[in-house]
Amino acid sequence: MGAGIKIENLSREFTVCRVRLAFRWWNKNANRSQFGGAIFSMTDPIYPLMLMAILGNRYHVWDSEASIKFVTPGRSKVFAEFQLDQQFIQQIVAQAANGEKYTPTVSTKVFDEQGKLIAVVTRRLYIRLKREYRPAVQQLA
Question: Which of 32, 34, 60, 110 lies 20 to 30 Å from 95, alpha-carbon distance?
Answer without folding.
Answer: 110
